[in-house]
């Protein structure tokens, strides 16, 4: 697997982005990342962000866009994504309580499918990013995660490995279950510390990252996106360490058949 497909979810550096988006993009490119996934543009106009991306040789992999923003003005939300050149809009979060309401979850699933169709009309693709709670509720004998992707066939998967693991399922198994439907993979590690899930630097937690990367060779993953929700040291040090781990791991030769 090529390191050309390693990206960073900029939420990891959200405080730094709020202070200096341009400087962060330059720093991230200097580390070696080839792509970035946005969680907002740090107050910088999208057209200016695009100029920095182009000058630094970075690809805009995707943009996280809240459900509230899409409901308020989908056209405006999509315009910013198109302007920075990202091919994907990702819905990153929903109020966790909704997942336990079967009718509400079903309605939300239909809403996601509508957004996926609206994206397709604009030349974009649409994905949903999981947390733990989609595996904490079941509807009709299935995890809420699975009912969503069953009932919204136009929605792609952005699988967050750490939160799938914390939800009690195998990220490897879910990569295989949604093979060719998971173009975006959040490569994230997590460990249970004093009864709480803590995001760790890659290789420091308990997620089967090596097995996941092996499965990703076969399942159509386009981008490997490092993210750490909360860093245990300076975030700039963590994103450097996470790139080094992922770059080293992705350079390992594929097993011979």
Automatic annotation (TrEMBL):
Keywords attached to this entry: Isomerase
A Pfam family the protein falls into: AP_endonuc_2
Gene Ontology MF: a single term: isomerase activity
InterPro entries linked: IolE/XylAMocC-like (IPR050312), Xyl_isomerase-like_sf (IPR036237), Xyl_isomerase-like_TIM-brl (IPR013022)
UniProt feature coiled coil, ranges: none
Stretches assigned to the Xylose isomerase-like TIM barrel domain: 26-245
Amino-acid biosynthesis as UniProt keyword: no
Name under which the protein is recorded: Sugar phosphate isomerase
Phylogenetic lineage: Bacteria, Thermotogati, Deinococcota, Deinococci, Deinococcales
């Amino acid at each position: 697997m090529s390191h050309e497909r390693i990206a960073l979810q900029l939420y990891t550096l959200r405080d730094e982005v709020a202070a200096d988006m341009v400087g962060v993009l330059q720093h991230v490119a200097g580390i070696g990342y080839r792509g970035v996934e946005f969680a907002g543009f740090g107050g910088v106009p999208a057209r200016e962000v695009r100029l920095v991306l182009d000058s630094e040789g970075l690809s805009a992999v995707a943009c996280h866009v809240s459900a509230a923003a899409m409901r308020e003005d989908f056209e405006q939300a999509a315009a910013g994504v198109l302007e920075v050149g990202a091919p994907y809009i990702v819905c990153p979060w929903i109020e966790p309580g909704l997942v336990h309401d079967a009718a509400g979850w079903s309605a939300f699933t239909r809403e996601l499918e509508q957004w996926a169709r609206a994206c397709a009309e604009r030349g974009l693709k649409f994905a949903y990013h999981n947390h733990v709670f989609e595996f904490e509720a079941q509807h009709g004998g299935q995890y809420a995660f699975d009912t969503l992707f069953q009932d919204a066939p136009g929605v792609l998967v952005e699988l967050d490995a750490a939160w799938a693991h914390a939800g009690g399922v195998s990220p490897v198994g879910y990569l295989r279950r949604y093979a060719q439907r998971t173009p975006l993979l959040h490569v994230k590690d997590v460990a249970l510390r004093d009864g709480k899930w803590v995001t760790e630097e890659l290789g420091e937690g308990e997620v089967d990252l090596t097995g996941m990367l092996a499965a990703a060779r076969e399942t159509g993953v386009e981008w490997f996106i490092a993210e750490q929700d909360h860093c245990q040291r300076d975030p700039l040090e963590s994103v450097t360490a996470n790139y080094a781990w992922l770059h080293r791991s992705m350079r390992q030769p594929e097993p011979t058949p």
